[in-house]
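Q: For a teaching session next week I want to show students how multiple molecules come together into a single three-dimensional assembly. I've collected the sequence lines for a complex. Could you give me the predicted structure tokens for the whole thing so I can convert them for display?
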Amino acid sequence: MYKIICVLVMILVTYLPRAIPIVFIKKEIKNEFFKSFLFYVPYAVLASLTFPAIFYFSSNIYLGIIGTVTALILAFFNQKLYVVALVSVVVVFGFSFIFF
Amino acid sequence: MNFTYGLKRGLPIGIGYLAVSFAFGVLAVNGLSPLMATIISLTNLTSSGQYAGVLLIFECASYFEIGLTVLLINLRYSLMSISLSQKINTNIPKWKRLIMGFGITDEVYGVAISEDKKVEASYFFGLMLLPIIGWTLGTAIGAFGANFIPDRLLIALNIALYAMFIALIIPPAKKSKEIALVVGIAIILSCIFYYVPYIKEIGLGFKTIISTIIASIIGALVFPIKETEETIKEEAQNV
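A: Of course. Below is the structure for the complete assembly, covering every listed component.
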């Protein structure tokens, strides 16, 4: 039951921010502070979700560091989302034979 | 700008989604049923938001934590939705807009906003269809197939989501020192919440919310952005 309610909550807070503006707002938001805040939020959320949690994605921290460095390098060279994800998985998979 | 043209434009997005959502499906069955994982993808249609939501469900976070964290992640869609409201044909009725709102993702938005003409509802419906199918199907394959995947690979797949987050953060942070600053502050705060005794007892959702709000407020105060929408447009096209 807990999980079902969680999913319903997720549906709501995902759909509403998408739908409300396109349905109701005709004019552009003018408040500069609010616009800037909204602009920075996704980067801040993703950054705090990723670090330092990524180092501990498996039980082995070295594997975490290897995976992090791989993803950082690929992202630095502007590789596509799924390329960064897939190559990081492959590299971590390869190195896991050394650690486990 | 009809339905078929939209489908064509949406095909590459749908294919890209297959791979990323596969990893989501595999991760989600660590604590959810395969069917539930698939339903989440079909109804949420977003990467970071639903990933974060599922991570919080694993932590048994409160409804409030989950709601607020996922809402914060999804706030960027409001910006895209506002910008699309200027781009679409003004005659489009409300009920169609309600459906269009559902299909707004970073990539769908990026393609729609880059069209030369006013966006019609039928075009947008075509555009969003294959991404929805790709996202849902990829999740289903990952979720129902997870049992047949060796443990070693399952562990490796857990890095996929964080790698994706990094891929979303680094390119814009490279281009803009403002974003880099906000990202840096968020990481420092998040590490404080992770390592410092007593503080680290706070739930993951609240840690994320507090880090995010402080970092974004500092960003908005120190570097207010004037051309927010232009920057977002440009960035969405690069994904």
